[in-house]
Amino acid sequence: MTEVSDEGLIRLWPTSLLKRRLPGYEQPNELLRHVIEKMDAETGNLTTRYRDTDFLHHPHPAAKWLLQCINKTVVDYLHLHNQRYQCEWHVQSWPNVNRFGDYHDLHNHPHSYLSGTYYVKVPVDVEELPGRDDRRPGAISFYDPRPQANMNAVSGDPQIEAEHTVQPEDGLVLLWPSFLHHFVHPNLSQQPRISISFNVVLKWSDALLPQQQ
């Protein structure tokens, strides 16, 4: 969506990140944690086997609650971008259990329209390690999709930062365009970080065809 201000300024090619904390997350998160820990104990390497599960279609009531919340978040995201036509999608999802030192390398999510993460349990106690003091354990960083867009930025220019970092917390949901590259920093706690990642895969409809100008 192109934004035009009252002063005639046109903001081109925005990239939107939706960030919100779900109300009433405490009890569902405790239930989700038990389900995911049980799955992890039974299967092993649960995080790397993301193609083997579609977690939010699990029959557990907490999974159904979260799916409803994510679908509502997707609707809100689309409406904020003036996409108010009939649109259907499937939410593909998988749990992540990140133990000490675990991280997710720089990547994006092909073959989907939107991607996101919901945080079930984020540890707050991290190990005191020697070395750098600018670590961001457990955080997630997003990167400007326009290569070298910041190379000519000057003081006060909002394009000077090519990286945006979010420090997760329990109950937080993030939603972004699937093309956006992101990196999950290592967990430096002895407690696992538990989250649920998901893709929003659109079901084809002629309503999706854009009108070119």
- Architecture, according to CATH? Sandwich
Strand order of the largest sheet: 3-9-6-11-4
Order of secondary-structure elements: EEEHHEEEEEEEE
What percent of the residues sit in helical stretches (DSSP H or I)? 10-25%
Quaternary structure type:
single chain
Low-pLDDT sequence parts: none
Mean pLDDT: 90
**Rg to the nearest angstrom?**
19 Å
Number of distinct beta strands: 11
Kindly report the CATH topology.
Jelly Rolls
Number of domains: 1
Q: How large is the share of residues in beta strands?
A: 25-35%
Q: What shape does the CA trace take?
A: globular
End-to-end distance, in Å?
13 Å
Biggest sheet, open or closed, and with what strands and sense? 5 strands, antiparallel
CATH superfamily annotation: q2cbj1_9rhob like domain
Task: Sum this structure up briefly.
By secondary structure, this protein is α+β, with helices and mostly antiparallel strands. It has helices spanning 26-43, 61-80, and strands spanning 3-4, 10-11, 18-21, 89-98, 104-107, 114-121, 140-143, 163-166, 172-177, 182-184, 193-202.
Describe this protein with a few key phrases.
Jelly Rolls, five-stranded antiparallel beta sheet, about 25% strand, about 210 residues, alpha+beta, 2 helices, four-stranded antiparallel beta sheet
Describe the structure.
The protein is an alpha+beta fold and 213 residues long. The protein has a single domain (13-124, 136-206), classed as q2cbj1_9rhob like domain (Jelly Rolls, Sandwich). The protein contains two helices and eleven strands. The chain has helices at 26-43, 61-80; strands at 3-4, 10-11, 18-21, 89-98, 104-107, 114-121, 140-143, 163-166, 172-177, 182-184, 193-202. Strands 3-9-6-11-4 form a five-stranded antiparallel beta sheet. The longest helix is centred in the first third of the chain and has 20 residues, at 61-80. The mean pLDDT is 90.
